[in-house]
Amino acid sequence: MDVILNRSSFVIGDKATDHTPGRMSWGYLLLEKLPFLLFALFAGLLMYVHQNETAKEVWTGYPFSQRLVFACYSLADYFGKTVFPVNLLYLYPFPMKPGQELPVHFLIYPVLILGLVAFLIKTIKRTHWQAVFGLLFFLINLVLVLHVLAMSRAAIVADRYIYLADMGLFFMASWYGVTWFQKQKAGTRKWATVTALCYLLYLGGYAHYRTYAWKDSETLKKELRELIDDDLLKQNSYDL
Description:
Blueprint: H1 26-49, H2 53-59, H3 64-83, H4 108-125, H5 129-140, H6 162-183, H7 186-213, H8 217-227, H9 230-235
């Protein structure tokens, strides 16, 4: 935010030609945020220490290498559900229990994330500050909930974690969408508007459909029981 608002001495893209006086050093910018960072660190450590120990022991059974793959999967899943929400659930179990082999298809996700990192680096070199800001806002707000640190959370992802992080993606979509739209001819604008309306109609329709599953606790758990293997439920001790 400090970079975007020209408060820092670091500049990206078209802001590089902006020599606004009064920019502050990184040291000062970090110092003014220190109380917030310390409080956040204290709250995070407090939460981590007081996790449910029984549940925590289960999830610490996943080796660090598997948790890294889980983190890559989670990032890809969060991004995908933001763009095209489908198959939403209130609980997303881990694909296997601790000690079992990781499903082979999960190995594609580290490759996808490496591609995203390469794209981010290339974007920085091309000085698109809008993409840099949007992607970093998305990644930074998710990095601490990706299960790299073992948590007593009985789910590989949780939709609520993307509510804040998605502001970064929405910022990018708005910026580049409006910029592109303004450059198009009348015919293209018309089709773009129709496409956007259809997309919004899908989002509204799917949201309404989900209200039937969320009618009450019983309908919610019934849906999950029908989708997930009974053995997986038992081995993860889900209360369904």
